[in-house]
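Q: Start with the shorter request: fold the first protein.
A: Done. Sequence, then structure:
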Amino acid sequence: MEIADLKRKLRHLKKEEQRIRARGVQVSEEQLVFKRYFDLSAAHKNPQTYSLDILAVMDHATRKSVFEEYFLQVYVTWLRDNHLSFECLYDPKILKRLGLSYDATERDIKKRFRTLVKKAHPDAGGDTDTFLWLKNQYDKLMD
C-alpha cells in the first residue's frame, strides 16, 4: 500500500475513533487508543506500536487484522469509559499476546495460563522474567 493512501486511511481511523468515543466532542490526543497503536512520527521509537513503514509492508489480510484489533480496543475503551462491561470481555491485546482469540472465556484463559506457567516456572527450569510477566498479564485480565 502506498504511504499516502495509508496516511489517509489512518486519519480516517482516528476520526472514526473520535466519533465513536466522544460523539462529536474532541477527545484529547493522549486519551486516544490510536496513540497506543500507531506511531506516525519519523523517529519510530515504541516497538509496541505500528509505524507507517511496518504497515506499508504488511499484506492486506495482516493489516486488516491490525485494524480490527484496533477497533476492538476502541470499543472496549468506550465501554470502560461509559462504565459498561460484559463478563466475557477481556483486553484483546493481552489475549493476543497469550495466544488466545478475542472471544476467549475465563476457562480458556485459565487453561492457557496454567500451560504457559508450567513451562515458565523457575522451579521447572523456566525463566523468572517470563513467569512474572505471565502472572502480571493474568492478573490484568482477571481484574
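Q: Next, the second protein, separately.
A: Sequence, then structure:
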Amino acid sequence: MREMDIAPFQGAGQLQSWNSQEIDDRMSIDGFARMREAMTAARQRRVLEAARLITDVKGGRTDPYFLKQAWRPTEQHAVTYLNEKYPGLFMMNGRRIGLLETMSYSDFSALTVDILDRTLYGYYTDAPVTNLPLVKTHPLRDFRLRAIYEMDGAVTPFSRMPNDFPSLVPHGAGEPPTERSMQQAAREVEGSTQRVTYQPQLYQGMMSVNWRALVNDDLGIFNDLTQRLAISGRRTIASFITGLYAYSGGWSTTLAAAVFANTVTTANGASTNNPPLSFQGLLDAITVLAKQLDLDGQPIVFNGSLYLLVGPALKTTAESMARAVQADISVGGGTTNAQGFPSQRLRIPNWPMTGISPIEDKYLPLICTGAMKNTMWALVYDPNAQNRPGIELGQLRGFETPQLYQKVPNTMRVGGGVDPMMGDFFTMNQDFKGLLVLGGTQVDGRSWALSTGQGS
C-alpha cells in the first residue's frame, strides 16, 4: 500500500464502515495489515504525547491553555506549538484533528486521570487497645445502673484480754464491739447508702457509600469500610479508658485523691514531690505503694505485676529504663546514717524495673492538654489481681469488641432478586455502622501511684 493511501483514514472506526468489496478494491491483505500497524503506532504515540502534555500542565511547565486547545483546537498558533513540542498529538497530514475526534477506549484512561500509574495505599497500622490492662473489665448484662459496694473495718489486730475478761462487759447489750465495726469505704463518706455507680452507654459510628461512588471505585477505596469502623471502635475503647484516669488538667481528681494518699509526694513517703520519670522517681512511686494503709490504718498487700503508664513523650525513657543493666540512685528510702547512706549515690543492678511492664498510652496527651501532658506518669498494680481495682470498665456481653452491621438492601430489579449493590431504594446508599456499649468508674486508687513529673 502506498503512503498516500493512509491519508484519508482518520480512525479505526472508518474502516469498520467499509464492506469487503471496498477493501478488496483499495488494498491487498498485506497492505491492510501494514496500515493497521501504522494506525496502532500512531494511537500509541498520541496517548503518550497526551500524557506528557497533561503532566507538563500539572507541573507548571506548560500553560493550561494549550491543554484546552489539544482537546478542541481553535487557534492555528496553538496547533503549531503543540505539533512542535508534542509531535503526533493530533496532527495528521497537516489537518487539525482534536483529541476528542480521535478518542478511542485506549485513549480514555490516559486523558481522564492525572497520571498513568495509580496506587492506593492502605490506612495506617491499627494499634491494639494498649491501656486495657490498666482496668478491670466486668461483663454487663444490660443497660441498667451498676452499683459497687465496699466495706471497711473489722480487720485490726486482736487485742490482748485481761484474765478477768469474763467479768467485763466491753460494750452495751445488743451492740457490736466498737473494735470490729463495719463502715462504708473511704470514698463513700456522704451517707450510709453511698456506693460507686456507673451506667453503660451506647456508642455508635456510621457511614454511607452511594452506588455511584462504588461504580467509580476502580482502586478499591471502599473495600475496607468495615475495617475502618473496627479501628474507630477500638479507638473509642482506648480513649474512654484514658478518660477514666486523666482529664484536660492532668490526673483524675477522683483517682488521685487525698483519701487514697497515692500521689508521689513527700507527704506520702516520696523523697521529692512529683518527680520526673527516672529510677529515682520509680523508687519513690514504689515507696508510696508500699506505705498504703486501709481506713483502719493497717498495711495493704497488693498482688500481681506492675505497669508503668507513660505517654508517647516518655516512651523511650520507659523503654530505656526497662532495658538498663544498672541504675544510679541517690536516695533509696529510710533515714540517712552517719556515713550518708542512703543519700549517697549508688550504682546497683536494675532491680527497680523487675516485674514492671511499660505501657504507652497514646491518648494521654490528647485528653490531658495541660502543662503535664508530656511529663505525667504512673505506677499501677494489675487491677485483675486486686480485690479493689483502681478502675473498672464495664462492657455489655457480646459487645466487648466493636460489632459491625450493614443495612439490608431494599432495592430489587423488576422480575428479579434484591440487588445488594443498589442499597437503599430512595438514596441508593449502602449503610454501615459499628456499636459498642461501655461504662466505667474509679473504684479505689490505692493500687495507683501517680506523678505529674513536674517536680512540684
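Q: Describe the second briefly.
A: The longest strand covers residues 429-442. Confidence is low (pLDDT under 50) at residues 1-18, 100-111, 188-192.
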